[in-house]
TrEMBL record:
Keyword Nucleus: no
Alphabetically ordered keywords of this record: Membrane, Transmembrane, Transmembrane helix
Domain LytR/CpsA/Psr regulator C-terminal: 373-431
Source species, domain of life: Bacteria
Family membership noted in the UniProt record: Belongs to the LytR/CpsA/Psr (LCP) family.
Name used for this protein in its record: Cell envelope-related transcriptional attenuator domain-containing protein
TM region(s), chain numbering: 29-48
Record-linked InterPro entries: LytR/CpsA/Psr_C (IPR027381), LytR/CpsA/Psr_CW_biosynth (IPR050922), LytR_CpsA_psr (IPR004474)
Cited Pfam families: LytR_C, LytR_cpsA_psr
Protein source organism: Candidatus Uhrbacteria bacterium CG_4_9_14_3_um_filter_41_35
Length: 491
C-alpha cells in the first residue's frame, strides 16, 4: 500500500521545503468508463443477447445451460432496479491494481456514474484519488485509501467503505458498486479479439510508465487503429501526450472511445455467437469483477445498454483547473486536492446535475482574465544566471504583477513550486500560473480547514513567518524556480 497520508494540522507546521517528492506513476486502471466496459458492457451485453435467444437455438455447450436458467429466472420476474422508481440509478465504479501491483487495493480510479432509464442518459464523474476526505475511523486521508481500509478490516468490504465515503461527500444515494482490477481490462480486450478505435489526433507521450517503474515513449497516429488490450490501455491511460492530448478532458474522451469500442465489439456477431469467447468473458468477469449487482439486475441493465452511446453520455472530470471546484495543495510533502469553497457544495452540484454535458471549457480549459492586482515574487532556485528575470518578463507579458525577483536560499530545486499565500481565494490566477510554469503548488495559509463540513474549525494551519518567505511586499504567490523552468525561457 502507498505510504499513508496523515494530515496533522495541529502538530505539523508548513514550511517552504525545497521541493516535494514526486509521486510514483503506478500502472493501474486510471481512466474513465473502463468499468462499464468490463463490468457492465461485457458481462451484461452478451448475457442479455443470450437471454433473448430461444433456448432451443442456444449452442449446446455446458456453459450455455447457465444462460437458459438465467433467461427463465429473468422472464419470470418483473422487478425494478434500486433507484429505477426515481428514474435515477447511481453506481460507484472502482478500479484497483490488484495482486502484483504496488498498493493493490488502493483505488486508482473512482467514478460516480448515474443512469436515467427513461431517456437512456448516462453521466460519469471522475473522483480524483488525491482528494482529501474524512474516512470513518481513519480521519482525513486521500479518498483512494477508502477501499484499502475496508479490505484491511474485512476482505471484500472495500467497496462498502468507499461507497460510504463517496455517498457522504456527494450527498447522493449509491445503489450499486462495481470493482474491477487492472488485469481484467487487458484480458477482456484480448478475449474479444481487440477493438478498433479512431484516433482523433496524432500524439506522443514520452513518460508513459512501465512495469518496472521506469518510463517509455508511446505514440498514436490519427485515424483508425486496431488495438489489443495493452495498446488500448496505453491509449486510455496516457496522461502526458502532446498535440492537445495531455489534459484530463482529452483523456476522458479517449476513455469514452474505448468504452464504446468495447461495447460495439462485444455486441458484434463474431463475439456474441462465439461460445468460446463468451466462456472466456465469463471467466474474466468472475476473476476480476466484484459487484453487489445480482444476475437479474445485470440482465435488466443489459436491456438498456445497446441504447447508450456518445450522444447521451456526459463526462465530468474533476481536476485542478481554473473552473474546477477543487484546488491543489501540498500537505506533508504529498500532492492533494481540496475544495475551493471550503465545502462540498460545488462538487455536490455537479453530482446532482451529472447528466448535463460538459464541453472542454467547462471541464478544464477555460482561462479567465487575470486580475492585474495579483502580486508575485519570483526566486531563482537554480544556478542558471538570470532565470528569475527572464521568467518575470514572461509572466509580466501575461498580465501578472511581478513585484520582486531574487535568489532562493537553496539553489538545488529540480521542480518549480508555487506557494499560494491567498488561502485559495485566487484559484483562477493560480491555475493559470500553474499551467504556464508547469509547476507544483503548495498551500501555505489557512484555507479550507475553516469549514466544519470538511475539517473541524479547531484544526488550523500555521502560516510561515514573513522572514522565512523573504518577501518585503505583500504578495499572493511565491514562485521558486527549479531546473525545469529553464526550458520555459529557452523556448
Amino acid at each position: 500500500m502507498d505510504k499513508e497520508l496523515s494530515v496533522d494540522f495541529l502538530k505539523k507546521k508548513y514550511k517552504l521545503a525545497p521541493e516535494r517528492k514526486p509521486r510514483k506513476n503506478k500502472k493501474g486502471l486510471k481512466f474513465l468508463g473502463v468499468f462499464f466496459a468490463v463490468a457492465i458492457l461485457s458481462g451484461l451485453f452478451f448475457s442479455y443477447q443470450v437471454a433473448k435467444t430461444p433456448v432451443n437455438d442456444t449452442p449446446s455447450t455446458e456453459s450455455f445451460s447457465i444462460f437458459s436458467s438465467v433467461k427463465r429466472f429473468m422472464t419470470s420476474r418483473d422487478k425494478e432496479l434500486v433507484g429505477e422508481q426515481d428514474d435515477r440509478i447511481n453506481f460507484l465504479l472502482l478500479g484497483v491494481g490488484g495482486a502484483g501491483h504496488d498498493g493493490p487495493e488502493l483505488s486508482d480510479t473512482m467514478i460516480f456514474a448515474s443512469f436515467r432509464p427513461s431517456t437512456k442518459e448516462m453521466g460519469l464523474m471522475s473522483i480524483p484519488r488525491d482528494l482529501i476526505v474524512e474516512i470513518p475511523d481513519y480521519g482525513y486521508r486521500k479518498i483512494n485509501h477508502a477501499n484499502a481500509y475496508g479490505e484491511m478490516e474485512e476482505a471484500g468490504t472495500g467497496p462498502v467503505k468507499s461507497k460510504q465515503v463517496v455517498s457522504e461527500m456527494l450527498s447522493q444515494d449509491i445503489h450499486y458498486t462495481v470493482k474491477v482490477n487492472f488485469n481484467g481490462f487487458e484480458e477482456l480486450i484480448n478475449a474479444v479479439g481487440g477493438v478498433d478505435v479512431y484516433v482523433d489526433n496524432s500524439f506522443t507521450d514520452n513518460t508513459y510508465p512501465t512495469n518496472d517503474e521506469l518510463v517509455q515513449t508511446i505514440s498514436f497516429e490519427k485515424g483508425w487503429t486496431s488495438m489489443d488490450g495493452e495498446t488500448a490501455l496505453m491509449f486510455a491511460r496516457s496522461r502526458h501526450g502532446n498535440n492537445g492530448e495531455g489534459s484530463d478532458f482529452a483523456r476522458a474522451i479517449r476513455q469514452q472511445k474505448i468504452l464504446l469500442a468495447v461495447k460495439d465489439k462485444v455486441l458484434s456477431p463474431s463475439v456474441i455467437l462465439n461460445p468460446g469467447k463468451l466462456n472466456k468473458m465469463i471467466e474474466i468477469f468472475q476473476k476480476n469483477v466484484q459487484t453487489d449487482l445480482t444476475v437479474w439486475e445485470m440482465l435488466k441493465l443489459a436491456k438498456f445498454a445497446p441504447d447508450i452511446n456518445s450522444e447521451n453520455m456526459a463526462h465530468h472530470v474533476l481536476d485542478d483547473s481554473a473552473t474546477s471546484p477543487l484546488y491543489p495543495s501540498n500537505i506533508n510533502g504529498s500532492y492533494v486536492l481540496l475544495p475551493k469553497k471550503d465545502d462540498w457544495s460545488e462538487v455536490r452540484s455537479i453530482a446532482e446535475n451529472v447528466f448535463a454535458n460538459s464541453d472542454q471549457n467547462s471541464i478544464g480549459g477555460e482561462k479567465k482574465a487575470i486580475n492585474s492586482e495579483v502580486a508575485i515574487e519570483i526566486q531563482n532556485g537554480t544556478h542558471m544566471s538570470g532565470l528569475a528575470f527572464e521568467t518575470s518578463q514572461l509572466l509580466s507579458g501575461t498580465g501578472f504583477n511581478v513585484q520582486k525577483i531574487g535568489n532562493a536560499d537553496s539553489r538545488s530545486y529540480n521542480k518549480t513550486i508555487i506557494y499560494d499565500l491567498t488561502g485559495g481565494t485566487k484559484a483562477n490566477e493560480l491555475a493559470i500560473l500553474k499551467n504556464f510554469l508547469e509547476a507544483d503548488v503548495a498551500l501555505s495559509t489557512e484555507g479550507w480547514v475553516y469549514s466544519e463540513e470538511v475539517v473541524p474549525r479547531e484544526l488550523t494551519v500555521t502560516t510561515p513567518g514573513e522572514d522565512y518567505i523573504q518577501s518585503e511586499e505583500p504578495i499572493d504567490f511565491l514562485v521558486i524556480l527549479g531546473e525545469d523552468a529553464q526550458s520555459l525561457v529557452l523556448r
